[in-house]
Protein 1
Amino acid sequence: MKKLLLIAAVMLFTANVFAQKQAIFPFQGGQQPMLDFFKTNFQPSADVKNQSASGLVILKFTVDPKGAVKKIVVYYADDVILAQNAATLLQQTDKKWIIPSDEKLHDFILTVNIGFQQPLNAANSKKFMAFYTKRSPLVTHNQIPMESATMLPTVTLTYDPAA
């Protein structure tokens, strides 16, 4: 009976260790290095700056065991120019992702909020209002299966539209 209890305790402890082993943050270094990477490497395109564009982008991407970004899908974007900037930035994270060792591919969902630094002057406010009224959101019209995707924390990026 004691042996059975000992074996059960060891198995529970081992299962707990394996569960924690897979719970590490999927970006090399953790959450803060991921957020820092995105903020440091964000270079808004001329279109984004000229239009004082601001909005939300939701991306799903697939990572292989080597950490390479294999496929990027836009689930939602307030405008195509925002989606292009977010996808370009995400491609720069190639080889920086960590997936569970027992998986061949893993899907992640990343929300990127792109905005400009406050305060805006009158000219940039007009540009933003023009952008906002003519923006063309990208939306998915198909179902989005999410049972095996990992939702990452929102990345908030800001830029100076006058720079």
Protein 2
Amino acid sequence: MEKTIRFYLLLYQEDVEYLFRNNFRELPVKEISSTYSLEGIENFAVNMMKYKHEPLITAKVICDFERYKEYKDSQQEDEEYINEFGDFTKIAVEAINYSVIDKINVINIFGKKLQEIDKNIYDILDDESRFFKSRLNQFIHSNSREIIPYNYFGRIAAEKKESPTFTDKEIQQQIKYAIAEEEITLKNAKERTATINSVEEAVDFLINEDLEQKDLDHIKNKSLATRFDESGEHFGYNMYLRNIFIYPNKNKIFLENLENYNSHYLIDRGEFGEGIIEDLLWRKVNNCETTEENSEKIKEIQKRINKNIEGDSYWNLYMKIKMLSYNFKDEEIEKYLELEDQSENDEDNFYEYYYQQKALLARLNEKEREIFENLKQDYFNVQNILNKLKI
């Protein structure tokens, strides 16, 4: 594990604009106020508000210790890293730029008239908020615990910019070719699926005949947290499932099996039942079919629902069934419901409880939990600044 060194900095609006132009990976080379603690830089910012009318922005930078030391050792011995005011000199800033890890993170903002901040700064921070939210969600939603790189959005934009340009005629030809290819694929799939008579057979076909390994790997990388994502797959993979299994499928045996499929748990069936196929596919690929013990617990809860037995709310019973179906333990379910109650009774901290629920669903280990907390705080820091600027 690499050794790191952490610094806290006091920046101005023009510094944030410079950071933005450099993917938040490089500081402007000038003297910058700094400390080794968050408390120290925030106290310094509060004191500076007495003398500065413009907004003051605190930031955190983490550096690779060996690279930082390497740069420092390469300089003249008489080079000063701290000036008489306790600020970083230009040489110190260059050392940071040489050794920075990931992004330089904005933490907080101070000022008497924050509402008068340059709109460009607000837009920059809004972009950072979207980035950190995407990074946090991707970490939770992937079993590989992917952390998107600091220049993720920039890469997408660059790829679009660098993509070859085509004439209108070439584009039309490409569209026709893609449609023709898709029609052939669907025709072949529909010919095969016409003889499929059950949901289980449909899933076996997808795993053993239809899906490529990269598709199966993609499904396998979807964490348990994605099974509780309300947005679902309606316009994604489920659209493909509707096309090959449901319309215009005249196999009444299959359609009746799909309509009457009793999974013993509650799921999003989708528009025509394709959600059932998608869910069973994920379970089989990820070895997460409901255990016999949990199936019995689910049946007991369903009896309570049918008899309208009071005690738990319908929502709590619904979540117990769903979480049991994915083989969560009783204590995990109780913790999830406890967080649900807290989120309803503490609106100011709603997103804290929301992401704690997500982390529980993703089943993070100790090391992953530590990374999650850091990613979450990165997102919350920027979002809190934006909330300050809206007041």
